[in-house]
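// run 5 | inverse folding | seed 20
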């Protein structure tokens, strides 16, 4: 996790004090959020949705769901409200029935107004690095199409890679970026893209979803 993404996560959690921080794909990002909760004594609950996270992440999560997001009951996603924060860092690949496809076509359209949501490994407004060609990542092209279509009025809160390359914004982070003792040789940019939902894209139909399991009650 690039430093700017960690700082963004920490800052957004500290600033908004969400009821739940829901994370699809856990790892170092989870540690940044837990640190923010501890430092600021927040009531935030960490919900980790990941079929195979790093084992040590379990100890910093409040709720652990060890299945992919496309297998999580629709009732859970329709219950995400403006008091929650959602961060997606999953396969980054859209195929038939994949997690990314389900997120953009079923989960994201049903997010309620006010939800702060973000995606990781997004390089917009630039393309993916050439070195990523063999990873077959295509998630940001769905996000780009959504943005070009007006994003249903969603507010762009923080695209970290873009922000890291703006001369007028660099001074804000200079005190941290110049700490070579902390960031020796580390990429100073980021690759998370944060938005805030302003209106429902479409009503989420959970009628065909599986019954809610005990872990979601």
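// decoded
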């Amino acid at each position: 996790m690039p430093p700017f993404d960690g700082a963004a996560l920490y800052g957004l959690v500290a600033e908004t004090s969400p009821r739940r921080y829901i994370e699809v794909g856990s790892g170092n990002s989870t540690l940044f959020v837990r640190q923010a909760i501890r430092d600021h004594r927040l009531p935030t609950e960490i919900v980790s949705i990941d079929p195979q996270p790093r084992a040590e992440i379990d100890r910093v999560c409040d709720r652990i769901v060890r299945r992919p997001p496309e297998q999580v009951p629709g009732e859970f996603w329709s219950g995400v409200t403006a008091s929650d924060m959602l961060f997606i860092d999953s396969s980054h690949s859209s195929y038939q029935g994949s997690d990314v496809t389900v997120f953009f076509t079923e989960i994201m359209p049903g997010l309620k107004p006010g939800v702060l949501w973000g995606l990781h490994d997004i390089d917009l407004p630039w393309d993916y690095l050439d070195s990523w060609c063999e990873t077959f990542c295509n998630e940001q092209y769905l996000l780009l199409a959504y943005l070009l279509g007006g994003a249903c009025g969603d507010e762009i809160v923080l695209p970290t890679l873009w922000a890291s390359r703006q001369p007028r914004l660099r001074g804000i982070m200079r005190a941290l970026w110049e700490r070579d003792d902390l960031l020796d040789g580390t990429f100073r940019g980021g690759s998370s893209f944060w938005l805030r939902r302003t209106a429902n894209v479409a009503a989420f139909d959970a009628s065909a979803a599986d019954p809610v399991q005990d872990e979601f009650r």
